[in-house]
């Protein structure tokens, strides 16, 4: 099976594109508007870019009527957005935050999570989340789509503060994935979480290269 997206019809009942690029970490992002209204929404097109300094990106498709997502607007207008790690225990809260609630609704309240203050960013973070990145907005790259819904804002940010809850750290200072059970997006309406990992160093990597690959501070 093969086809050319945009010029040939998909021969499958569901597009395989997002179902193949898996698992995708969830960008559960909190922002605040210029008028002080908090916003919370999940994005599955989210990833880290580099580590020195740490930078991240997320992509937010606009609505079919041309409206841009509040997360993007808030990040551009205030200069900040916050990533909240989503876990299996927080799956229902994350899903509720994906609903397009009426303008002005408190989406933290709708999702049933607690808004905790940040240190640098003006908006709140999800208190129940085990890790957070406070991100300073850098820029937006807008990509044209084949349809109204296809237009996308790719937003870049620099991580200026990292929070990790002490109870999810191992004795040697690593994140304990068995305790966290991070949530990730796969295809369709499906998600996954994991608790099992395996270690596999790159053969021949030594010194600074090995330390960098392992993520030593």
UniProtKB/TrEMBL annotation:
One Gene Ontology MF term: oxidoreductase activity, acting on the CH-NH group of donors, NAD or NADP as acceptor
Ranges where the Flavin reductase like domain occurs: 19-177
A Pfam family hit: Flavin_Reduct
SUPFAM superfamilies: FMN-binding split barrel
Annotated PANTHER family: BLR2425 PROTEIN (PTHR43812), FLAVIN REDUCTASE LIKE DOMAIN-CONTAINING PROTEIN (PTHR43812:SF2)
Designated name of the protein: Flavin reductase family protein
Organism: Gemmobacter lutimaris
Lineage, uppermost ranks: Bacteria, Pseudomonadati, Pseudomonadota, Alphaproteobacteria, Rhodobacterales
